[in-house]
Amino acid sequence: MPINRQQLEKYIGQLLDVDRFRDYCPNGLQVEGRDTIACIATAVTASQAAIDAAIACGADALLVHHGFFWKNETSPIVRHKKQRIAALLRNDLSLFAYHLPLDSHPELGNNARLGELLGLSVTGRTSEQDMVWLGELAAPCSWPDWQARVSRALGRDVLAIPGATPVQRVAWCSGGAQSYFHDVATLDVDCFLTGEASEFVTHLARESGVGFVAAGHHATERHGIRALGEHLANQFQLELHHLDIDNPV
To answer: At 140, which helix (H) or strand (E)?
Structure first.
């Protein structure tokens, strides 16, 4: 059954508590399309491939984790940005984007889904805006077994820098959250897991004894937007298409 675009935006905004977050981009409707929505598509990023696939499946709205208009992004609408926005406008396709609110949601969020996939029981949250999650495995796990578990769960090879102890207490944050490792390395945990790695993490892991896993930015953020789409489809009886655009990063 169709839902009004403004009603959908209001519902998602309240569901994800978007006003609570200091973010690097606008959360909510980023490009306005048709007034009523009966079919939605979801993808991690508003790439041209995702936009084209959403148009091809007849979606009225595309919901993503990574949208447009980032804080350090240049303002001119040229080249690939022009092509993406032109395709949305030409096809009257709305673009909704939810960044930190989707990372953070306690049930539908990227971190909640990632912890569930890895068999982690949540024990707390910490760091800026509570973006780093803390949890435990049911039993200690050797580093080779932990690396294999993460690889199986996410369907890709991962980079692991082993710590000084087996893995049981884990801190994690999906996406490009490697800068949080400075704080996490002072905590009583065995491992920090995120999507990406920077050069400094190797030395910090070796010196602190807290291991580090980079499991892929895309891979660690595939499940939140899908969960949001499934929730909306069930709530409002919408047609849903999840677009899993491959990304090795």
So the answer is: strand 132-141
